[in-house]
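Methods — Computational structure assignment.
A single polypeptide chain was analysed. Its primary sequence is given first, followed by the predicted tertiary structure written as structure tokens.
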Amino acid sequence: MIRSLLRRSATWYGLCLLLIGSLLSACQKNDATLDTTDYSARDESLIKAYITDNNLTGFRRDTLGLYIAVTQPGNGVKINKGQKVSALYTGMTLDNRVFDSTGSRNNQPFTFSVGQGQVIAGWDLGFAKLTKGAKATLLIPSGLGYGPYAVGNIPANSVLRFDVEIKDVQ
């Protein structure tokens, strides 16, 4: 019973963190101090430099600026909007500082419904391009992440890296 409760607590912690961030990035705040600068060109440069500086390969850019590298192909059909996905992940900033990981919660997969706005836009877009069993790295520009909002120890307007593994799709 305690183990089940801990698993649920870990899942809720991860869900709450991503949901809060998603809600914050979706909010339109009428605040003169909110930075509404378009960082897409800066983010593109940062991502390209990060790929080069770290000798990364296999990345494909989508039309919104999300970069995806599949490091291990999955074995199923692509994930559709509305499907529940359970995944392991590690999230970090481009200085390789980890800000969240399922590894810090006994590797309990985080579950969410794709395309429902429960997570940051970069996740909804990226996971929809993957299949069950796939492992991938997502480089998410700030506009598809938390945008002008600082969340926890993630600075506002940060480009994010997520290493993900799709454990289950329902």
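Note: Confidence is low (pLDDT under 50) at residues 15-30.
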